[in-house]
Amino acid sequence: MMRPYMLAENTWKIVRETEYTLAILPWGATEAHNYHMPYGTDIIEADHIAAESARLAWEQGTKVIVFPTVPFGVNTGQFDVKLDLNMNPSTQLAILHDIVDVLNRQGIYKLIILNSHGGNDFKTMIRELGLQYPKMFLSSCNWYQSVDQKEFFENKDDHAGEMETSLLLHLTPDLVRPLSEAGDGASKKFRMTAIREGWAWAERKWTKVTKDTGVGDPRKATAEKGEKYFNIVTQKVANFFIEVAKADNDDLYA
Ligand SMILES: [Zn+2]
């Protein structure tokens, strides 16, 4: 099965001859996901959503190239969860800078970061790098915000809940423990009204908020729900890839 849009699976001969217009950098995290899902959950999601979205875009003639997923996310709030592998935002900026520098030097002027992890936030980095690399179109997208989860799932998922569990039951069922082993994902909220309303923000100290590391009840998850959601999400993400690939960097606004 040839996947010409996956950089890690292709040779120099092919890559040298292909004119890519858009690069995709999937970005995950390595962290605990309740009692029933693996530490690589966000990486698995990023891998599959990037690959399938790129496949759909490629079939429409989009010359998109997916880079290997960055496996480390910002886990500063989970500092005391065993082997949650925190990568500081400043380190992420250094990595992103190097990737953008490669693209800019080689004339691939469009990059989308496909983000899989709520603790990652690339906006300020994109502002800073955009100033340094004015030819580049730099963008990030959170696939988990691309469609209204309420249409697919009964219980809201923040972390390791019904949405993520359904996705993994669809994508990698062998890596999910029986749901009878899952914690209920119950969580505490901040006492401050402004933060609860969402217009003020502070970082949650994870182990003070949840017992099982989950935030969101996973127990109504099914592979069928995951498949439906995956298909809609990848279609929407593919459409974004196509729109960005077609866009003129000097004429982005209407
Ligand atoms: Zn996750």
Are any ligands bound, and if so which?
Answer: zinc ion
Largest beta-sheet details: 4 strands, parallel
Order of strands across the main sheet: 2-1-3-4
Tally of contiguous helical segments: 8
In angstroms, what is the radius of gyration?
19 Å
The overall pLDDT, averaged over residues, is 97
- Portion of residues in helices? 25-40%
Kindly estimate the percentage of residues that lie in beta strands according to DSSP: 5-15%
* Ends apart, CA distance between termini: 40 Å
Give the overall form. Answer: globular
Descriptive notes:
The chain has 254 residues and is of the alpha/beta class. It has helices at 12-17, 41-59, 89-106, 123-132, 162-171, 193-197, 206-209, 223-246; strands at 22-27, 64-66, 110-115, 137-142. The protein has a 4-stranded parallel sheet with strand order 2-1-3-4, with helices on both faces. β3, α4 and β4 (137-142) form a beta-alpha-beta unit. α2 crosses α8 and α5 packs across α8. The protein binds zinc ion (ZN). Residues 33, 41-42, 159-160, 164 line the site of zinc ion.
What is the compact description of this entry?
This protein has 254 residues and is of the alpha/beta class. The protein has helices at residues 12-17, 41-59, 89-106, 123-132, 162-171, 193-197, 206-209, 223-246; strands spanning 22-27, 64-66, 110-115, 137-142. 38% of the residues lie in helices and 8% in strands.
